[in-house]
Automatic annotation (TrEMBL):
Belongs to the aspartate-semialdehyde dehydrogenase family. This is Aspartate-semialdehyde dehydrogenase (Asd). One of its GO terms (molecular function) is aspartate-semialdehyde dehydrogenase activity. Its EC number is 1.2.1.11. Keywords: Oxidoreductase. It is an enzyme of class 1 (oxidoreductase). InterPro entries: NAD(P)-bd_dom_sf, Semialdehyde_DH_NAD-bd. Signal peptide: none annotated. The keyword Transmembrane does not apply. Pfam families: Semialdhyde_dh (PF01118). PANTHER family: ASPARTATE-SEMIALDEHYDE DEHYDROGENASE, DEHYDROGENASE, PUTATIVE-RELATED. The lineage of its organism: Bacteria, Bacillati, Bacillota, Bacilli, Lactobacillales. Residues 5-50 form the Semialdehyde dehydrogenase NAD-binding domain.
Length: 53
């Protein structure tokens, strides 16, 4: 099955976190996810399907 690499710009913001939640609930086959944030969010982890990113 084909999987997708997904990048979310502004992942720690309100819209970014909502996109992550929606991806977790969707049936889209995500092979890899790239979370892009500003320098202010350096070192912050976000959960995706039970794993910290």
């Amino acid at each position: 099955m084909k999987t997708y690499t997904v990048a979310i710009l502004g992942a720690t913001g309100a819209v970014g976190t909502r996109l992550i939640e929606q991806l977790e609930q969707s049936t889209i086959p995500v092979g890899a996810i790239k979370l892009l944030t500003s320098a202010r969010s350096a070192g912050k982890t976000l959960p995706f399907k039970g794993k910290p990113l």
